[in-house]
């Protein structure tokens, strides 16, 4: 079983450059030990549902410490029948090019 999510999270009250806050969230994702891939618009994370959601929650709690307004989007693809979707989805499309 696997949950694949794309997460985008950043403060809206910290000026034009929010990369230090994105880096904080990414550090939490790295520490989780889950598979992840950073992209220009967010981060894809893959793992068991409870672990992925716990990691997202830790990111939110960390930013809440010093941010008054936080924007977050999350897209989810949950599958009971397989894992490794992050790499398989990309490979499937590239194979068809």
Please explain how this structure is put together:
- The chain is built from three helices and four strands; from the N terminus they run βαββαβα.
- It has 97 residues and is an alpha+beta fold.
- It has a single domain (2-95), classed as Alpha-Beta Plaits.
- 18% of the residues are buried.
- Fraction of residues in β-strands: 25-35%
- What is the chain-wise order of helices and strands? EHEEHEH
Distance between the termini: 29 Å
Count of helices? 3
Average pLDDT score? 94
CATH fold category name: Alpha-Beta Plaits
Low-confidence region ranges: none
Main sheet characteristics? 4 strands, antiparallel
CATH class: Alpha Beta
Strand order of the largest sheet: 2-3-1-4
- How many domains make up the 3D coordinates? 1
Which structural class do the helices and strands define? alpha+beta
Overall helicity? 40-55%
| CATH architecture tag | 2-Layer Sandwich
Shape: globular
* Counted beta strands: 4
Radius of gyration equals: 14 Å
């Amino acid at each position: 079983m696997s949950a694949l999510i794309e997460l985008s999270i950043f403060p809206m009250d910290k000026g034009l450059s929010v990369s230090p806050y994105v880096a904080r969230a990414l550090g939490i994702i790295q520490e989780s030990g889950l598979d992840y891939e950073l992209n220009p618009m967010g981060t894809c994370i893959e793992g068991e549902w409870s672990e992925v959601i716990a990691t997202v929650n830790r990111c939110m709690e960390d930013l809440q410490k010093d941010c008054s307004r936080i924007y977050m989007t999350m897209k989810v693809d949950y599958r009971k029948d397989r894992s490794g979707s992050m790499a398989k989805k990309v490979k499937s499309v590239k194979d068809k090019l």
